Amino acid sequence: MDRFLIKKDLPSTSSSEHTGTGSVDDSIKNKMSLPSALVIVIILVVNYINGFDSSLVDELVVSTAYGKVKGIIQHSRNNRSFLAFKGIPYAKPPVGDLRFRAPLPPDPWTGIRLGDKDGSMCTQKNYLLHHRPPVEGKEDCLYLNIYKPKLSNSKDLFIYKRRLPVMVFIHYGGFFAGNGNSDYIGPEYFMDKNVVLVTFNYRVGVFGFLSTNDDASPGNWGLKDQVAALKWVKNNIVNFGGNSDKITIFGQSSGGVSVHYHLVSPSTKNLFHRAISQSGSALLLWAKPKSQLQSLIAQQQAIFVNCDPSVNTLEMVACLRTVDANVLANSSDLFKTFSTEPFALYGPVTETKTTLNPEPYITEDPLDLIKKGKFHNIPWIIGVVEDEGILRASPLLRQSNIQTELNNNFDKIGSEILGIALSVLPTQVTPVWNEITSYFIGDNYVNVTEPEDVQGFIDIYSDRSFIYGTYQSVLMHAWRGHSPVWFYNFAYRGEYSYEDHFAATQETINFNWGVSHCDDLLYLFPSKKFFKPLKAANDIRMSKIMVQMWTNFAINGHPTPINNIKPSSALWTPLENLKEQESVKNSDLVYLNISGHYCGKEGNPIRLEIANQFKTERMLFWKNLPLSENIDGIN
Question: Which intervals carry biased composition (Basic and acidic residues) (predicted)?
Answer without folding.
Answer: 1-10
